Structure formats: C-alpha cells, structure tokens
C-alpha cells in the first residue's frame, strides 16, 4: 500500500503524466473537431504514425524542431483532405474511409521511412525538444517539478485545448461547426455551407492528429519506429466520447488516462517480479473502459455524426 | 398596387424525366398572404426551394423588390429578406433556442458571440409577434408547436420581409394551427408578405388573400380567396371531382378487443398511461392525436412488437398476457404500419415477397419458398386492390406511395382479418389515393372487421370512425360518438381537455348503453 502512496506522491509521476497525455490531448482534440462537424475520422491512427515519421524525418534532414511539427500538421491536413473528399464530397462510409486512411497512412509511413533511412542496427536519432522550465513557477516545490518543466509542445497542447473550448462554444465559427454536426440542413438554411465547414474541420482536426504523432518522435522519444503509435489514436477516439465532445473535458480525459498509464509503469517497477508486466499494461485500458461506461451514458452525440450531407436531400 | 416585393418569373425545373416546375410565375405584394395549393408532387416545395436557393432552376428568375437574386445561393436569399419555415424543421435539437436562431448571423471570423445583443433582439421580436419562447431552452425539449415558433423566429431574426411556410400545420393540433394563422395574419398587417404551402382547403380559404393552384408542376389557376369556394379549389387541385367516401350507419357486433388500464413503459417513461378502450366487430374506433403522443406504442403493442407493463388486454374475450408478432398474425390482426417505407415494406424486395413474408410458412414447401404460389397470391392482391405500376416480380419501392399502401392494405384485407390496426393509413397520399384507401377500410368494416384507426387527420377520423378517442401524452380520452364530434371539440380533446375521472366513465357507460 505504501508503495502506491509513494508513487502518487512523487513529482516524477506527475511530470510523466503530462508527457504521456500530450499526444492524447492533441489527437483527441483533432478527432473531436472532426466529429463536431459530423465526420468520424478513424484515420487518426495512421495520420499520427505519418505525423511521427514525417516530423522526425524533416528534423533528421536538418529542419528546425518547430518546422518538423508544422510539416507533420500539414501532412495531417492533407490526409484530412483525402478523408473529407471521400466522406463529404462522395458521401462514402466514414468508417470504411477512415480505416482505409489509417491502413494507407501507416504503410506509406514505413515505406517513406525505409526509402529515406538506410537499414541500421540501431535507428538513427535526433535531438528532441528539451524541457522548458517556466520561470518562477518551476521553482515551486513539487508542483514546479511536476507541471512546469515540460517540453514546449506540452504547453502548446494544453493551450490548444483551452483555445478549442473557447472556439467551439464562444465563437460564431464554433456555433457553425456544431450546427453542421447536429443538422447540416439547418446550417445550410442559415446560409452556412456545410460542405465547406466539414472540409475545414476535418483538415484542421487531422492537422492536430499529425502534431500528436510528431510529439512522439520530436519530444517523447528521439527516433521513429513503425509501431510507435501503439493504438493511441483509438484511445483518442474513445476519449472523445468520454469527453462528451467537449474540448475541456478532452483535456481532463487525456490526463486521466495518462495518469493510469504513468501509474502502471511505476507499479511495474515495484511489483514487477510478482506478476507478468502485461497485467499492468492492461490497467489503463480497463480503467478507461470503466470510466467511458460511466461518462458516455450521459453524452449527447452530434446528431448528424456519420451522416453524409447531400444538398436538396432530406 | 406598387412594385411587388417578390416576383417569380417563368421558373422551370426538371428532375430526371419529371418536370417538377413548368414555367411557373408568381408575384407577391407587401402585406399579402398567398397560398400555394396543390397535391403531393404538384411542385410546390420545389418552387419554394428554388426561391430560397436550395435548387438551381433550369430557367426563369426570382426578383426581390425588382432586383434579381443569384440562383442557388441560400445566403443571398436570406440577405434579400426571404425566410423559410421548413416542413421538416431545419433545427438542431441539441442546441439551445438562441443558438439555433443565431447560427450564421454573425461573421464566422468574429472572435466572440454577441449573446446579450442576440438575446435582446430575439426577445423583442418574440414580443412583437406574440411568439413566446425561452431562449435558453434546449430545442429538443420543446414541443413541436414551440419548435415551429423557433423556426419562424429564426426567419424574423434574419430580418425576413417575405416568409415562406411549407405545410405549416402538418404537425400542429387544431388549436395550435388556429393560433399560428392568427399570428400570420398579424404579421401581414405589420407589413410582412407571406406564402404558405398547403393542401388543406379550410386553412387556405380562411387565411390567404390569394390562392395559386399547382398541379403536376404547372400553374393551373389563380383565385382571390374571396371569389372562390372550397369545391372549386378542390376540383382545380385534383383536376377532377373526387369525393371521399363517408361511412354509413351500421350496428357493431361483439367486443373483439378490450383494453383496461393498459400501461406501457419503455426506457423509464410511461408511453401509454392506463388507457381503456373497447373495439367491436364491424366498427371503426378512431384514435385521434398529434404524432408522438403514444399512438406509435399503441400500434406496436397491438402488432406484437411492444409489450404491456401492466393492465389487461382481452382478445376475443380471452385475457392475453403477452402478444408476439406470431400471435398477432395467427389471431388474424391485420396491421397497416405508420411508416410504410420502414415498417410496411422492404423496398428492395419484390412485391410478391413483401406480400407473403408474414405468412411464409403457408408459402413454403419442404423448407423452400413456393415462389409460384406467392406470385399468384400477390397477383390476386394486385387485381383485387387495383395496385398499379408493378407486377409481382418488381421491386416494391418502385410503386408510388398510394399504390404501395394499397398493396399493404390488400395484403392484410384479402384474408378478411377480424381486427385491423391502421396507423395513419392515408398519410402523405394524394386525394385520389386517400379516397380509395378510405373506401377499402369502410369495406372491411362492412364485412365485420373491427378497425382501430390511428390518425392525426381530423377529416379522416370524422369521415370514417364510429367512435373517437383522443390520445394525448399517452392517455386516452373516453370515447365520443362520431355524430357528437366537431373539429372544435376534437381539437380540444387533442389538447387534453376532456371531462376527467368519474364523469368520463359515466359518459362512456352512457355511450355504450345507447
């Protein structure tokens, strides 16, 4: 029991929680933005993989870290354009198109990586983002070490969550996006073009997914390997439901999942000898399913989610 | 008169091989109410969709105050002051009233919503036109009548000077409809111009200044409301004289179906609350009410797809605990479902397959479907019930609504069922088809079938039913005999006003004694 208390009381755990949460925050915000406009984007897993690869590759070839991030976002937006073309313009099944984008983007990532980087025993590395201590705040005892000595993208992700919460609920654009996700015919009747809104939301959301991937290679680790996204995209899809499609709750959901994950990692080192470590790997997922079951019952799904919009049809 | 506020000049629109609008023109003056009258498929909604920019016309143009509108641009139509109240509301149930009204009214790139200003403007408009509504209510929590108010407010909020209403009373109770038309007249007095689409003659005659009749996509006549009659308009609309059949007096037989204190609870909500009714052989019991008041559950219960929570059902005098679909079929209960496309027929399957599905065991031999017998059976239905536009082998979705309904009726009535549960049997059909569906139902009554007619159409219930009960919020009023029913009284009953408790019970006993 005291071992558990020790884990929770360590600043290291909380610093790790924020780090683990960052790609989940960005990915969940991205998926949320798409879904608020009425488009489910299961391309997320593949888009994150591609973002991780292309961001890393850019930096490996000499680009600035932030440029790498921007390239990952741009690549994400392009996959978003593909997904929007299939689901918005052609009105195809959003599930099938999204899974297609994931399979395509994942394989394409490995392919580009193989072309660009010669096979080597140990994968090549870059110099990732270094922790940025926020002056003043980082000197606070415990809290400073836990929350204010993160790498810059983590701060960006948290600010983006707050920004999106404001955008979705407090601006005319956010209202237009919500209306499109609830009833595109109603949006059109108010002079909003639902097609344009959906393209915009899917591309912007996919850009966030690309950034989520890039965090893994440019901040959390320093190299790319094909399986590194490890289902984080799917967790993001679940977190959107957990968050009831609200950006500020997406932030909380991502932090909660990251807490479970960080906790089990440390639990492994304490209790690792007694039981196979795979048991600990399952903990965050089991707890997430339980949390989802509780939270999602009250969620209000965007009413037009997964419904293609065709002008003049009802 | 000065320049018309709105002119539609020579608009034509073709969908595939059908000419939905054929060179239609229309003008509208300030403060005028024009009714666009026509049957389903006459092209009314198409014309209004062109006006509002949802569709591009193939030819013709629209002018507002003498200025031509760019075609196919809803935003331009809104800016020019055209407001549209759709029949299927263009509203988002998860958003608040205020959000529904203000979406798209501010620049999408502005950094904040001006909620306080928006609320003040909304409240002042709702005050001015007597359209009361709570700006912060979630839209999905409002009644249909209130949602329509929001739909109208939305148009007024966009400074509409020309308001188009597509079948505005289709979803309203009589009382709500009367209130709506009073509001519309008030708006016209305040200088707004209105067009409303309808196929109901009464409301057209009582509300409109001018009536434009469309038939088969063509503009067939234009009359001043003061210079025409219902009979003339009906004939212009249908193109021939159609008379709906009316029931003749008869003596009902024994009670075949009785419900006492019947309650159905689904998802934690009582959909039917301790309802009582008795249905006799050879009579039609009309259940009148606005959709969504529990009639769907009542129909499902009697079709075997929902189960009672408490109360008693007596079927042919025998108490029944649970009714499965198979029980219903073997008991000889015919069913006409409310939504014929979703529950009544499987669009992609052949007519003969749709005809035999519920009695498949009779049409199978050695575990295989007896296609030949099925085809013959469906041909009998097609001949007897005058189903046009298909052969036993053609897919059922190729039939028009009226012919599909005739087939569904035929499938049920050809076997002379003892009970027929008919939910909204004439919904969405045009005059000719309505008349023939009604005739079939009356014929079943003559042959001794007990008919439970669930409908929201006052005329239909008053023409067909021997006794009428209103359904409101899952409760059933005591029955009144059809001769005592008037539109006014039924309207009150549909709004939930009937003598309660003991008085009602006594009334029912009196009715049964008589």
Q: Proportion of β residues of chain A?
A: under 5%
Gap from first CA to last CA of chain B: 60 Å
Number of helices of chain A: 13
- Rg from Cα of chain A: 20 Å
pLDDT below 50 for ≥5 consecutive residues: which ranges of chain B?
501-511
Q: Rg of chain B from C-alpha positions?
A: 25 Å
DSSP strand count of chain A: 2
Mean pLDDT of chain A: 91
Describe the global form of chain A: globular
> CATH H level of the largest domain in chain B: which superfamily?
P-loop containing nucleotide triphosphate hydrolases
Describe the largest sheet of chain A.
Answer: 2 strands, antiparallel
- Supply the number of helical segments of chain B: 18
Helical residues, percent of chain A:
over 70%
Question: What do you see in this structure?
Answer:
The complex is a heterodimer of chains A (314) and B (514). Chain A is 70% helix and 1% strand. With 314 residues, chain A is mainly α. A two-stranded antiparallel ribbon of chain A has the order 1-2. In chain B, strands 13, 16, 19, 20, 21, 22 and 23 form a seven-stranded mixed sheet that branches. In chain B, strands 6-7-8-3-9-10 form a six-stranded mixed sheet, sandwiched between helices. Chain B folds into two domains: 4-238, P-loop containing nucleotide triphosphate hydrolases (Rossmann fold, 3-Layer(aba) Sandwich); 255-513, 3-Layer(aba) Sandwich (Rossmann fold). The longest helix of chain B has 16 residues, at 174-189. Helix content of chain B is 34%, strand content 25%. By secondary structure, chain B is an alpha/beta fold. Mean pLDDT of chain B is 87; it is low at 501-511. Chain B contains 18 helices and 23 strands. In chain B, helix 15 (431-446) links the parallel strand 19 (419-423) and strand 20 (450-455). The interface between A and B is medium-sized, with 24 and 34 residues.
